[in-house]
């Protein structure tokens, strides 16, 4: 349980400050444990990043699932409503996974953590839309919306939803 709590606190810090900025003292302070305890659970900065990414992944997937309708198009409409909220309140500096790859481009474990997260989103989109044949296209729309959020805000979400509904052949609201 303590590892989970540390990962949650590190996730918050990395989301707000990025990966390059926080010093060891800031990581320790954010984790709210002794340096020894922090390093016992996460022996390197990279392992702290991976723990934070895994915690964020679990939170994001649970966030998407909360109240999701069964119907394919309705489930994806729900996704974009949730994504807009997530970007506004949980991702002030954009996608944490993409930012982690940028900060640690040569770290295989960071890449694997990001790959797992992104592949689960791709699978979720295929399952929830009931269109596994369009999972990759839906994933690209999702990723585009989250990347464009920093520039376009809600317009990115609205455009992604509209594009998704068109792709699915579903009526637009």
UniProtKB/TrEMBL annotation:
Record domain HTH tetR-type: where: 1-60
Positions of the DNA-binding region: 23-42
InterPro entries, alphabetized: DNA-bd_HTH_TetR-type_CS, Homeodomain-like_sf, HTH_TetR
Residues annotated as signal peptide: none
Domain of life per record: Bacteria
One Pfam short name: TetR_N
Keyword presence, Membrane: no
This protein's UniProt keywords: DNA-binding, Transcription, Transcription regulation
Keyword Methyltransferase attached: no
PANTHER family cross-referenced by the UniProt entry: HTH-TYPE TRANSCRIPTIONAL REGULATOR YJDC, TRANSCRIPTIONAL REGULATORY PROTEIN
Protein name according to UniProt: TetR/AcrR family transcriptional regulator
């Amino acid at each position: 349980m303590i590892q989970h709590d540390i990962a949650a606190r590190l996730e918050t810090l990395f989301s707000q400050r990025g990966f390059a900025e926080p010093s060891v003292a800031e990581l320790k302070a954010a984790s709210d444990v002794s340096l020894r305890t922090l390093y016992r659970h996460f022996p390197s900065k990279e392992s702290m990043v991976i723990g934070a990414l895994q915690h964020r992944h679990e939170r994001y997937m649970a966030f998407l699932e909360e109240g999701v309708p069964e119907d394919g198009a309705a489930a994806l409409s729900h996704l974009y409503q949730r994504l807009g909220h997530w970007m506004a309140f949980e991702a002030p500096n954009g996608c944490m996974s993409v930012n982690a790859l940028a900060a640690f481009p040569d770290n295989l474990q960071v890449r694997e953590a990001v790959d797992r997260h992104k592949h689960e989103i791709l699978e979720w989109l295929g399952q929830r839309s009931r269109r596994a044949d369009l999972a990759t296209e839906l994933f690209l729309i999702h990723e585009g919306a989250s990347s464009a959020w920093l520039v376009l805000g809600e317009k990115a979400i609205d455009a992604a939803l509209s594009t998704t509904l068109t792709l699915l052949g579903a009526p637009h609201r």
